[in-house]
Amino acid sequence: MKPLKILVTGASGAAGSYFVDFLKDFHSDETEVFGLTRWHSGASQKNLKHSQGFVKLIECDLMDFSSVTRALEFSNPDMIIHFASHANVRASFDTPISVVNNNTISTLNLLEGIRVLKLSPRVVLASTSEVYGNVNPEEVPLRESQIMRPASPYAASKAFQDLISGVYFDAFHIPIIRTRMFTYLNARRSDIFATAWARQIVQIERGERDYLLHGNLESVRTMIDVRDAMNAYWAAFINCAPGEIYNIGGTESFRVGDVLESLIDMAEVPIMTKLDPELLRPNDVTLQIPDCQKFMAATGWRPTYSIQDSLAHLMEEIRSSYQ
Q1: How much is the pTM?
Q2: 4-185+225-249+289-304: CATH architecture
Q3: Integer CA distances (angstroms), 2 to 19, 29, 78, 80, 243, in order
């Protein structure tokens, strides 16, 4: 059999690079992987170090339709996973126009390129639990039928991605699977709370700072390991039905402040903390607990790593990145 040609948008980013690494480690014999990366992106050298020589990188500006169509023609993919987004929730309150334009136009260009070129790849949209916004306690665990009430410009842009993907499935029959991923630990995203704390802990251990700064500690979330998250995306490719929406997330809930305490327990020196008002979001999402039965029934996927295993892995990755 010919290998599956997979196109990963945002391949040098925090999520995309992990997925490329996953394909290299577990599916290298059955896949040919192309990765879209921004012009002269320095992140490709760092995040894709493990997969150099495996992934075929294509410099592409997703905001430029002609650039997108060239990349699609060159790769002619059987599958596409769309990670590329400006994903910093806090930053989206400061630069909403930039974030919303990037995330909406890039997605439209990708879907319209597929339509115009008359391609038929299976597409996985990597959406987010942020689209659900602030929910009431009686609404959890959140099901895919839950109304979207995005609470940030970033979340609104992801809701648009989600909705326009549904339109392109219904109107143009592009086989799109929409996944809404809940929190997973990711050492390559410095803006995620756990990663930011792990980095600060290492800096304190090295004598480079005195305090760990944090924002809201009262949010309650399920969390999974980045390795489980990448396996879930692959399971979505193989087993999920186009046109459907799937929640992906953990089965255990944690208070964010308890995660911080666990990381502090792993530190090699005493850690002092301070609340930084600048880290508080103008409108925060504080209750993210999914019902993932639909996804689990379709794929057989289950989280395999405990929260302690995941946090230890996170600290190991952060420490190694500082060597």
Answers
A1: 0.94
A2: 3-Layer(aba) Sandwich (3.40)
A3: 21, 10, 11, 17, 26
